[in-house]
Design brief:
The structure holds two protein chains of two kinds. By secondary structure, chain A is an all-alpha fold. In chain A, 72% of the residues lie in helices and 2% in strands. Chain A contains five helices and two strands, in the order E-E-H-H-H-H-H. A two-stranded antiparallel ribbon of chain A has the order 1-2. In chain A, helix 1 runs antiparallel to helix 2 and helix 2 packs across helix 3. The longest helix of chain A is centred in the last third of the chain and has 42 residues. By secondary structure, chain B is of the alpha+beta class. Chain B has six helices and five strands; from the N terminus they run αβααββββααα. Chain B has a five-stranded antiparallel beta sheet. The longest helix of chain B is centred in the first third of the chain and has 24 residues. The chains are: A mainly alpha, B alpha+beta. Chains A and B meet through helix 3, helix 4 and helix 5 of A and helix 1, helix 4, helix 5 and helix 6 of B.
Amino acid sequence: MPREDRDTGKGKSRSVVVETVSRLMVPFIQLFALYVIIHGAGGPGGGFQGGVIFASSFVLYVIAFGIVKAGNRFPEHANIALFSTGVYLYAGVGLLCVICSLGAAQYLNYGFIPLTHHFEENRALGMDLVEIGIGITVMAVITSIFFNLVWKREEIEKGED
Amino acid sequence: MKSLSVAALAFIIVLGVLFVYVAEDIPDFGDPNSAPNRYVKLFDTDAAGLVDELDNGIIPDSLNAKIEEIGLPLPSEVAKLKEGEWEAVIVPEELHYAPKEQKYYFIEKKGDELWVYRYALIKRFVEEGHHETEVPNMVTYILADYRGYDTLGETTVIFTAGVAVLLLLRRTGKRPE
C-alpha cells in the first residue's frame, strides 16, 4: 500500500515491496562488496570495484527509504572521516615498510612488514591491506557524491515550493 | 588549541621530510639500472668466435640453440649498442600495425664469456610475479605491488575528486526536514 513520503511530504508514494526487498538486499550487497575487496588477490576484484559495489548499497538505500533516513544511518561527518582514512591506510602501509626496512627506504615494498616469516606472503598480505584502503576511499567518495547530489536536489525542490 | 596547531605543524614537517627521503629512493626515469629496467641473467657461454658474428648482425646458432632449449622465443635481429654489448630484438609479424621491435635479450661480453640477459619487465611481471608475491592474480600484483606508487596516486585522485564535489555541492543550510 503506497505511503506518503516522509522526506518531503509532497505525496510521492513509496512501495512496501521496494522497501522490503531493499532491506533484504542491502546486507547481501555489502557482504558481496567485502568479498570482492578481500578476494582481489585470488581472483577478479579489488579495491576499486569493491568500493563501488559497497557504495551502490547506499544508493539502493537512498532510493528505497529517502535521503533523510539514509543520512541518519550514514552521517556525513563519518563519511568525510572515511574519505581520508583509506588514503592514510595506503600511505601508512608504505610508511610501515620504510620503518620496518630499517633505513633502506623501501616505500611500499610490503615484503618488509613482519606479518609472517615469508617475504612473499608479506607482500600478499600488504597488498590486501592496500586494497582495503582503496576500497574505503572509493566507497566514501562515491557515497558522498551521490548523497550531496540528492541533498542538493531536495534543497532546490524545497526552495521552489 | 595552540599546542594542537604546533603538533600539526611538526607532523607536516615530519611528513615532508619523509617524502623527500622516499623520493630519493625512486630511481630516475630511464635509468638502466633501476629495478624495472634491470636485466635478468639467463645463461653464459664461451665467447670465442661469436663476437664477430654478433657485430655483423648475425645471431650465432649456438646461442639460438641455448635459447630454444630454455623454451623462449628466438630473436630475429641483433643490434650493436657499443663495444661488447648487443641487443637482440624480435620484430613481430603483424599485418595491421606497423611492426615495432620488442626488446627481448641483452648480450654482454664479460672477459672471455658472453652473458645473455633477458629484459626484466616482461620477465618479472609475467613470469616471476606469482613466484615473487604469492598472489595468483596478475592484475592485482601489478596494480598493487609493482605499480604501488601509481595506485597510491590514483587513490589520491579519487580522494581529490571527492573533496572537490564536496566543496561544490555541500549543503549550505540545514538538512531538509
